[in-house]
């Protein structure tokens, strides 16, 4: 019974590995998972005592449960049946596609990742690159938002920094869920983004199965009270101007919205306009190139190479102590807009209209929301000074003339009701920091006390890009009908 048995060394190693794996999978991993979940639940409960908008139950639901609920949603199943009939496809194949879409879309929110890691990283990166400012917020109306409402932050899209900036500024009040494009679907970025509560969107997809799955997830998130953030423009502005809004996600939110149900105690949707502006957009040259139909298309390697060169050049400036932050990054939070009140005022109910009848109403709502965002876009120093130069591109100015013109413009925008950010409440200082940004980038040249646009390197186009950030405050965008109001 106690005799020694000789076994090959490979078998002993195999048995040892199997035993170690059994202990790891059956004992250690479940224990670590339980401790991790316990810590996250404690953090969530603590946050819900301090956050203005609580973390909703849907954000605390396990991802597998949400995926299963989405896959077996009645509307999704009806779409699957219709697809199988039209395409003569097996039911199992269609459901496999639905599962793929559901797993791609549904996030895996982690409160620890969002509030302890994500918001900390966002704060450090944003503060390293910019002087971050919260310019204006309608705190009274924001605090008065009802608990029985789904909140949607509606924002203009200037830079990929928008995600970090708003995530950082709003982190003490709310956890935001973004709709993120396919650009982020690379390892390990997509895993990180999912834990931060974001969901992926295939823009322009014509697959009816995918559209139905995405629609139902958006509606589940709204019905579950998840706080979402959307960019109606659908992408980054290529010329600095407000882009005509797209209605895809907004229409998904409205399709199942019934004003009668809200009157009887149902969940309202509250839109919060959020406007962002920067003294420098990191992607400005790339965006201008993308918007130029005649420009030569660059390869992905070329883009990576240019990005790396930019990063190394900034490190070089830091080492030589010649580096400055990229000016101001400012966000304004406007007056919340109740969807129930809006629909009552305009006399239509989304649940009673088919898609064709609903489309013009949704487009008008999207335009009104984006105009509400546009009215609170921060007027920053670089935008003001850029406008002075592009309004007289062949003229040279003295610094005193720039200061006088900038002060006049700031007063004019304030008279329109715009939110002008003046650093330190010192108009002269705002001109200094704005001019410094433009001269450091050599968009503006200073020679013998005279300032003029650099005639080379697309300087005038870049200056126009920054002036366009506030152009809608005086001239309404071309996509707006004549009856739309301007700022103020």
Structural class: alpha/beta
From the N-terminal CA to the C-terminal CA, the straight-line distance is: 94 Å
* Strands, count: 10
Radius of gyration: 26 Å
CATH topology of the largest domain: Glycerol-3-phosphate (1)-acyltransferase
Largest sheet features = 8 strands, mixed
Question: What is the general shape?
Answer: globular
What's the helical proportion of residues? 40-55%
CATH architecture of the largest domain: 3-Layer(aba) Sandwich
**Level-1 CATH class name of the largest domain:** Alpha Beta
**How much of the residues is beta strand, in percent?**
5-15%
Description:
This protein has helices at about 10-45, 55-60, 65-70, 75-85, 90-105, 110-130, 140-145, 160-170, 190-195, 210-225, 250-255, 260-265, 285-290, 300-320, 340-345, 355-375, 380-390, 400-415, 425-440, 460-470, and strands at about 130-135, 150-155, 175-180, 200, 230, 270-280, 330-335, 335-340, 445, 450-455. It has about 500 residues and is α/β, with parallel strands linked by helices. The chain has three domains: about 105-280 and about 325-375, Glycerol-3-phosphate (1)-acyltransferase (3-Layer(aba) Sandwich); about 285-320, no CATH class; about 380-470, Orthogonal Bundle (Arc Repressor Mutant, subunit A), CATH 1.10.10.10. Strands 1, 2, 3, 4, 5, 6, 7 and 8 form an eight-stranded mixed beta sheet that branches. A hairpin with a 2-residue loop joins strand 9 and strand 10 (about 450-455). Helix 3 (about 65-70) packs across helix 5 (about 90-105) and helix 4 (about 75-85) runs antiparallel to helix 10. The radius of gyration is 26 Å and the shape is globular. Mean pLDDT is about 85; it is low at about 480-488.
């Amino acid at each position: 019974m106690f005799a020694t048995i000789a076994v090959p060394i490979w078998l002993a190693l195999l048995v040892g590995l199997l035993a170690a794996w059994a202990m790891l999978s059956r004992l250690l991993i479940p224990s670590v998972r339980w401790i991790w979940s316990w810590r996250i639940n404690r953090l969530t409960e603590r946050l819900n005592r301090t956050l203005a908008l609580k973390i909703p139950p849907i954000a605390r639901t396990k991802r597998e449960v949400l995926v299963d609920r989405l896959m077996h949603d009645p509307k999704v199943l009806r779409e699957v049946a219709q697809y199988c009939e039209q395409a003569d496809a097996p039911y199992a194949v269609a459901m496999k596609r639905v599962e793929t879409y559901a797993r791609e879309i549904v996030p895996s929110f982690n409160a620890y990742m969002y509030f302890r890691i994500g918001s900390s990283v966002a704060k450090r990166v944003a503060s390293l690159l910019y002087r971050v400012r919260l310019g204006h917020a309608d705190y009274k109306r924001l605090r008065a938002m009802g608990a029985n409402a789904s909140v949607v932050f509606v924002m203009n899209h200037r830079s990929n920094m928008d995600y970090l900036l708003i995530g950082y500024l709003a982190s003490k009040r709310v956890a935001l869920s973004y709709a993120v494009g396919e650009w982020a679907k690379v390892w390990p970025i997509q895993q990180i983004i999912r834990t931060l509560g974001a969901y992926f969107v295939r823009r322009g997809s014509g697959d009816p199965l995918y559209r139905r799955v995405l629609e139902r997830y958006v509606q589940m998130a709204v019905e579950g009270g998840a706080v979402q953030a959307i960019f109606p423009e659908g992408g980054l502005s290529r010329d600095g101007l407000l882009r005509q809004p797209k209605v895809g996600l907004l229409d998904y939110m409205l399709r199942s919205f019934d004003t009668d149900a809200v009157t009887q105690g149902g969940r309202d949707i509250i839109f919060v306009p959020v406007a962002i502006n920067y003294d420098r957009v990191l992607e400005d040259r790339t965006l201008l190139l993308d918007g130029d139909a005649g420009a030569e298309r660059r390869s992905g390697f070329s883009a990576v190479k240019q990005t790396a060169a930019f990063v190394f050049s900034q490190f070089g400036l830091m080492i030589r102590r010649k580096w400055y932050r990229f000016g101001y990054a400012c966000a304004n939070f406007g007056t919340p807009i109740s969807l129930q009140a809006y629909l009552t005022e305009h006399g239509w109910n989304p649940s009673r209209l088919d898609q064709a009848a609903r489309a013009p109403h949704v487009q008008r709502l999207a335009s009104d929301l984006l105009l509400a965002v546009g009215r609170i876009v921060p007027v920053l120093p670089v935008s003001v000074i850029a406008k002075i130069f592009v309004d007289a591109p062949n003229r040279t100015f003295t610094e005193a003339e720039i200061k006088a013109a900038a002060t006049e413009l700031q007063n004019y925008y304030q008279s329109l009701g715009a939110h002008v950010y003046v650093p330190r409440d010192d108009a002269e200082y705002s001109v200094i920091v704005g001019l410094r940004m433009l001269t450091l980038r050599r968009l503006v040249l200073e020679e013998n006390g005279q300032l003029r646009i650099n005639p080379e390197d697309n300087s005038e186009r870049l200056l126009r890009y920054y002036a366009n950030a506030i152009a809608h405050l005086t001239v309404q965008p071309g996509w707006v009908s004549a009856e739309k109001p301007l700022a103020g």
